[in-house]
Amino acid sequence: MKLKALLIASTASLLLSAGTSFAGPEVVSGPGAEPGCFAPWSADTKYMQWPKKDGPYKVAIVNGFVGNTWRIQMIKTAKAYAQDPAVKDKIAEFKVVSTGTDAPAQLGAIEDFINQGYDAIVTIAVAPDGFDRVIRLADKNNVVLVPFDNVLDTDKVMQVNENQLEMGRMWGQFALGELHAKGVKEGKILEVRGLPGNSVDRDRSIGINEVFTKDGGKWEMVSVVGNWDDGTTQKVVADAIAVHGQFNAVVGQGGSNGVIQALKDAGHPWVPIAGESENGFRKAIAEHSADGLKGISIGQSPGLVAIAMKAAISALEGNVMPQLISVPLPVATYKELKDGENYWSNLPDNFFTVNEFPPCGVNISGPAIMAQDESDTN
Q1: Average pLDDT of span 333-359
Q2: What are phi and psi of 359, to 5 degrees?
Q3: Of 79, 88, 148, 283, which sits most exposed with the smallest number of CB within 10 A?
């Protein structure tokens, strides 16, 4: 009986210690730290607080796909921000890896950094699900895991993003509004999608198609996959024009410079185009808006990585944080573009123009970003 009692007590002790080892964040009451910067997604967003750790911290960026200019600039921005005087002294070690589109490889890299004792891991998720195991491991080790851009379908981690569904709606509404203004209520719309399998691509596409479906016009939606890459997008748009002829409008998630070049090469008339915040796209809108290129540029900034890093450090410092942080959508239409203000004629076409976040005290200059490279750090 004594042995049985001892075994029961030992088992209970193990269960208790196992339960307490899974610390992770607590759900607490708001408001959170720096609400002007770390704005909650909605009134229903919960707040989280991690145990305070003393710095400086070991921070890792675990990227997935790296085959387009946005991802390359994002990595460069992360490296530039890690050297910013505002955070440099708070970071003891900083690593960057890109694992490609293979989800197990990304999960393995995150797990490896956790096991190495890193304090925070910022990631662009390859897929919106399948991260439960690494989330539990991060919680067990009090590691702050922060997905951004391509976020996860979970409320168990702090995440940073712009409203992708709303971005898709705004693109669709702009194109539809320009068509209605010309009296056009039917025709072909070319949708250029992003990288398959990502929550960003999914949510943007839902928003775009929702708008055209609700309109009730006789719209034929033609969809191609551009991977948010200029070269890929140029090819698939050129192929779509060759097969389908002229389009009434183009709504593209990214690779916007490729859209412009494909239309030029095909001699396609300028039409309303909704796209991302590439500098070249904004240059083209400014140059050709009077010729029919009525464009809207909404930026999913590579600078989101800096906000995610700042949020991770704030959480490590023990601050209360929103579970889902909303970064405002930076929008410019053909009526609002100004050289030197929201696009730059002296910067490369593939530079993404939105990297300033005044409420967060984050402003990474173009030269500081371009001085970095996109390679992994060892």
Answers
A1: 90
A2: -65, -20
A3: 88
Q: What is the pTM of this model?
A: 0.81
Residue given tokens 């096991």 in the structure block? 115
Mean pLDDT of the chain: 91
Partners of 333 in the β-ladder: 296
Looking at the DSSP bridge assignments, the partners of residue 322 are 47
Ordered structural domains, the chain, with CATH: 25-162+302-328 (3.40.50.2300), 164-298 (3.40.50.2300)
Helix (H, G, I), strand (E, B) or coil at 143: coil
Rounded to the nearest angstrom, the gap between the alpha carbon of residue 168 and the centroid of all alpha carbons in its chain is 14
The three-class DSSP label of residue 32 is coil
Contact between 238 and 313 (Cβ < 8 Å): no
- Is 368 exposed, middle or buried, given 0-12, 13-18 or 19+ CB atoms closer than 10 A? middle
Rounded to whole angstroms, how far apart are CA atoms 212 and 217? 7
Phi, psi of 150, deg, nearest 5: -85, 95
Binning pLDDT at 50, 70 and 90, where does residue 295 land? very high
